[in-house]
Write a structure and sequence with these properties.
Elongation Factor Tu (Ef-tu), domain 3, about 25% helix, alpha+beta, Rossmann fold, Alpha-Beta Plaits, about 600 residues
Amino acid sequence: MHAIFSIRRMNKIRNFCIIAHIDHGKSTLADRMLEITGTIEKRKMKDQILDRMELERERGITIKLQPVTMNYNGYVLNLIDTPGHVDFTYEVSRSLAAVEGAILLVDSTQGIQAQTLANLYLAMEQDLTIIPVANKIDLPASDLAKTKNEIVKLLGSDEKEILSASGKTGFGVKEILDAVIERIPVPKGESGKPLRALIFDSNYDEYRGVVAYVRIIDGEIKKGDKVHFMATGAKTEALDVGIFRPDYSSTGILKTGEIGYIVTGFKDVSECRVGDTVTLSGSLDKGGEEVFNSIEPLQGYEQVKPMVFAGIFPKEGNEFQALRDAIEKLKLNDAALFYEPEQSQALGFGFRCGFLGLLHLEIFQERLKREHNLELIVTTPSVAYKIYKKDGAEEIVRTPQKLPDQTEAEKIEEPWVSLDIITPKEFLGGIMNLTQEKRGIYKNTEYIDETRAILHYEIPMAAILTDFYDKIKSVSSGYASINYEYMDYREADVVRMDILVAEEPVEALALIVYRDEAFRRGKDIVETLKETLPKQMFVIKLQAAVGGKIIAAEKISALRKDVTAKLYGGDVTRKRKLLEKQKKGKKKMMSAGKGSVEIPSDTFIKILKK
């Protein structure tokens, strides 16, 4: 009887997520769904309600996946809202593993973009049911026929299957919810089997400890159950279990096919790992040893490969422990983050952190500042280089400081990526020139329709690290979009460039550059420093050096106090006397030493963006 009831209950569950390119209206559509299903009271409703972070609301982008449970026409609909930016693809792939279907949202004013394709391919790999939706049809620039035509070509689906909607006005949203119920399959799983739950995300709560976000694959879990985390071996009691509405809403039980949370009470964040399988603790044998049924752990997730590495150091040395705790908590909430301790002679103790891209780094840095009140020094980002030494040794170098001398290295290799750029035809020339400048190797061009094309390139990761996305947007008047994936390592002619401020090398500004670009990059950096560093009481020399040789230089003149301001009238010799005295003081200052110059933290970001 219980089994029949469980099957009936599962038949009423649908798990799905929304995937799209950045800014195609995912969060707005989710808002309308929450409104129509009555999940959130009207008085509590606000725009982008699933974007819980202040940063997300400020920038108008989704950074974190966010689950929510809705009740609609007798069905339980579990939605996971996902990010659209290429740097947060890992969030999307984890969401997809927890659901059976996906709404593919396409902005009808822009058509299919690069991340639309990338996210669609991720969903197809997971064998999910796709519901295509053309969004923003209320806008004057909307071209519904063209957008539907692109989706038909892409999916090979019937045009009748494509839904039209406006997340802003709510038009067509009920039809989407009906399609979710009709088209997305019932969750697979067996309620009679022992508990197996997949952790697809987690969060740290000051009062509850670690909260695991789970999808129940088999069995069920109740509040108070003793649970076991298979990968880490950690054991705890489920202090609470429940669903997201979108805040934590305790239900006391989670059954097969449901998506919800488990409050673990862990204070050590390493005990709960994304991708781990949660089971119930086994019974004890006569010797008091635990007996586990032969439970097969779930597949979990592939380990993500960070692409961009930067050093993160506290401004004050005594804040190292606070930085460690903060990074550990953010790691729990950001499974794509990689970090390891690092020591620098100039900057002290800190961490070398790996990110999926520059926006990922920027958001991480901003969260440390806002959520944990930390003042940071962030070194210039670089990719990981493979060094083949003459003595046959191999090593991976992530910092310019560790790049060996040219006499020791046989060859140096850098990571390459395959790059797809979707653009209107009129911008092809400008984009091709830009990618050529950035050492891209042209592969081929595909045409989506008469007006838009996909350019396929192979390009060094370092070339697209800093300003490439911005430049593509500016060359294409904002219409082009990009997506990239790691391919392999290839030989590169690179050197280490040091930046000296007041004749002292600034470790945080050292970087690895192509030999033939060293002069231009060095000149750019010293010019940026000249514009951004505040004047001091002495002349500041700014220099870029490769292997001890100065290749670019600038000077910041000394701050000159007006020592004659207090004088009025009288002989000119009185003025001259004071100016001569000041001159002597400046000379003495120069001979005494160079003085120390503090570099404001926003200078590092300005140099990156240059």
